[in-house]
Design goal:
The complex is a heterodimer of chains A (316) and B (369). With 316 residues, chain A is an alpha/beta fold. Chain A is built from 8 helices and 18 strands. The radius of gyration of chain A is 20 Å and the shape is globular. Classes of the chains: A alpha/beta (316), B alpha+beta (369). At the A-B interface, loops of A face α1 of B.
């Protein structure tokens, strides 16, 4: 089965903000595109064969186009650099069907939408859905400065009582995520997308509110493991330290050192290899732990997940 | 709609690479069942085993013989020939082979060349089964046959059957290793809905993989309920042990009892099934089944009922896996498979089967029969 069956044409290409390109994609024959829900993304083959993920930012009830926003990453490994410097109006891109690992629970009372930088893209789709369904929503948008704030004009036109804009240069620092979490009201869930440090800070401060915190991590290439770093795992019970190389999973590294552990899928979907974490912050790559469990960081799937820092201590 | 990311698919494919599948070469250095003992008599029986053509017969003294089914002269099937005493007379030019597989006469010339023969395969009877060794001669050791003593034990009443199974043997091992399919593939026969979600324990040792599933309390399906007398009992227990014992043998043992009764007083009912898998080709296999019970041993009607019900269930496997085999025929380049937690022993079994197959090819075992 072809993973990228939609050949879509770039029908609009605009500079949305500094280092942010707004790209509109349509089917050549003008036919309706597969529907998506707020929070969804496309996997697009850029520069021919690099798979990259881009969130859909338009209202989910639009069936004739997909809108994506691409931030130019300073350390781009080819994805955003291609999209900013080589992609032209009229080009076609091979896209997957929309996928959603960051869907809104549509039955909530209140939505607190939090975006950092280019993370505004899925959040904007969520905001449009909330508006269309008359939900109680508010938006917190953090960017380095006004020039880099994508959709600044769009957001300024919204009800100022609902929109909090934070610019690092004007505020003299990053968004205070702990304080933000303290403002969470009864029945209000927080959906966040943005740079890793912002999301890490939200997870770290969540505590008992973790089950109302939903995040989607943006990295320049979430589908690729090229950017993976090596790190150390310390085995608490056997007092051993083992290096996990960038292209290696924790499970593989342990097996290479003669440690045999339960597994089945080796793909992060079955839970057989779930291992307790004694210390360190996991970088969850699995598809089975709940958002709350991921935020709590007390265990991880060693067949796919990694470490956010330099090391993890595992209960092995 | 969510489709797996290319990342997940890459992980799934990488996990599948070291696992045996229908393309994995056979493991020849193992004992497999060639036939039930009572299938081999004073006639020439042709059978394809692990893609080798084999002919079997019984000598006048009663010894079962297995030879390569190909005349050394012009490859005519020896099975299409004539059994005279203990000698095969080839149906083409009358070459004669004795029970050792040696050529003893060439009708068209006076002097028979010495030192010519066809391959003879060790064939050993254990209980009602004839086990054959198709691998390297020097490695054949009858002590390695995974003998099932219970089949011959008078404490067990046994019935047997055979299916010509239209699927590959790796898929059948998987089917037996993951009995959560009972709740679904066998919903109308031996499965109950609670089976799939019941807790289980694993014991994974190299070459011997075991899964024990305890379904307690449960109500037994009619075939077990009626035969054990536990029909309708809401506190019945069904403890099922699945064991991969060798590439040619899987054993399922089940214990039934009433869990409401105290341990010392409760009667335990045991059944066992030897699922004997002998590949025929890459996509078909000989499926011999021997099933036994250690209760109501002399109740023939009960035995027949149990046999009929069970074999209806086994037929569901044969049909289901035949459909699976056809689906596997249609795989394309984008094919992938994912495993879930209860696949762990099947995954371990498939890793082991591929390891054995790869090791054999590395040691360059003779494929010529």
């Amino acid at each position: 089965m072809n993973q990228h069956p939609l050949n879509l044409r770039v029908t609009r290409y605009a500079a949305e903000a500094k280092d942010v390109a707004l790209i509109e994609l349509r089917a050549d024959d003008g036919r309706a595109l597969p529907p998506f829900s707020a929070g969804a993304h496309l996997e697009i083959l850029v520069a021919g064969d690099l798979p990259r993920h881009y969130s859909l930012l338009n209202a989910p009830d639009e069936r004739d186009r997909y809108l994506i926003g691409v931030g130019l990453a300073p350390d781009s490994r080819g994805g955003s650099r291609f999209m900013h410097q080589q992609l032209r109006l009229g080009d076609t891109l091979a896209c997957s069907l929309p996928r959603n690992h960051f869907g809104l629970d549509e039955h909530l009372q209140r939505y607190c939408l939090v975006a950092g930088g280019i993370g505004i893209t899925p959040i904007l789709a969520m905001l449009r859905w909330c508006q269309a369904h008359d939900k109680d929503w508010r938006l917190v948008y953090s960017a380095r400065n006004r020039q880099r704030a994508a959709f600044y004009e769009t957001l300024r036109a919204l009800d100022p009582a609902r929109v909090q804009l934070h610019f690092d240069d004007e505020a003299g620092g990053h968004l205070d995520t702990a304080q933000l979490l303290d403002t969470l009201r009864d029945g209000e869930h927080l959906y966040a997308c943005g740079p890793a440090p912002m999301l890490d800070a939200l997870q770290a401060a969540a505590g008992p509110r973790a089950e109302r915190l939903h995040i989607e991590r943006f990295s320049a290439a979430p589908a690729s493991t090229e950017g993976d770093r090596g790190f150390t795992v310390h085995l608490n019970l056997s007092d051993r330290s083992i290096w996990v190389a960038p292209q290696q999973s924790i499970l593989e590294a342990l097996e290479a050192h003669g440690v045999e552990l339960p597994f089945s899928c080796r793909a992060g979907i079955c839970g057989s290899c779930q291992t307790r974490v004694c210390a360190g912050v996991p970088d969850h790559r699995d598809l089975i732990l709940s958002d709350a469990d991921k935020a709590a960081g007390q265990s991880l799937m060693i067949c796919v997940s990694r470490a956010l820092g330099d090391s993890l201590v595992l209960d092995l | 709609m969510s489709l797996p990311t290319s990342n997940l698919i890459a992980h799934a494919r990488k996990a599948s690479e070291p696992m045996a599948n229908r393309e994995t070469p056979f493991i020849y250095n193992e004992w497999y069942v060639a036939a039930f003992d009572d299938e081999v008599g004073r006639h020439l029986l042709a059978r394809r085993l692990l893609d080798r053509r084999v002919v079997m017969y019984r000598t006048e003294a009663g010894e079962p013989i297995a030879l390569e089914d190909r005349c050394a002269h012009r490859s005519f099937p020896l099975s299409r020939s004539h059994l005279q005493g203990d000698t095969i007379v080839c149906g083409y030019h009358g070459f004669r082979y004795d029970a050792a597989g040696d050529l003893t006469e060439v009708p068209s010339q006076k002097n028979c060349p010495r030192g010519i023969g066809v391959r003879r395969y060790p064939l050993v009877r254990q209980g009602p089964l004839l086990w054959i060794w198709l691998g390297e001669e020097a490695l054949a050791d009858a002590a390695q046959i995974p003998h099932q003593a219970w089949i011959d034990d008078p404490a067990w009443a046994c019935t047997s059957g055979y299916f010509h199974h239209p699927g590959n043997y790796v898929s059948l091992h998987e089917n037996l290793m993951d009995l959560t399919h009972l709740s679904f593939l066998h919903a109308n026969t031996i499965g109950t809905p609670d089976y799939a979600s019941a807790p289980y324990k694993l014991d994974l040792k190299e070459g011997h993989y075991t899964l024990i599933r305890e379904v307690v309390p449960t109500t037994l399906s009619p075939v077990w309920g009626k035969t054990t007398g536990l029909e309708g009992c809401p506190s019945a227990a069904r403890i099922a042990t699945s064991e991969f014992l060798s590439p040619g043998l899987h054993r399922v043992s089940v214990t039934f009892y009433d869990s409401a009764q105290p341990l010392e007083q409760r009667q335990q009912f045991h059944i066992r099934t030897a699922h004997i898998l002998t590949p025929e080709t890459a996509n078909s296999l000989h499926y011999f089944i021997v099933h036994g019970r250690d209760f109501a041993q002399h109740d023939e009607a009960l035995g027949e009922y149990m046999h009929e019900q069970l074999f209806a269930a086994f037929n569901e496997d044969v049909e289901g896996l035949g459909a699976l085999e056809a689906a596997l025929d249609d795989r394309d380049d984008h094919h992938y498979e994912i495993s879930v937690a209860s696949d762990a022993p099947a995954v371990a079994t498939r890793l082991y089967l591929k390891k054995r197959a790869d090791a054999e090819r590395q040691h360059d075992s003779r494929k010529v029969g």
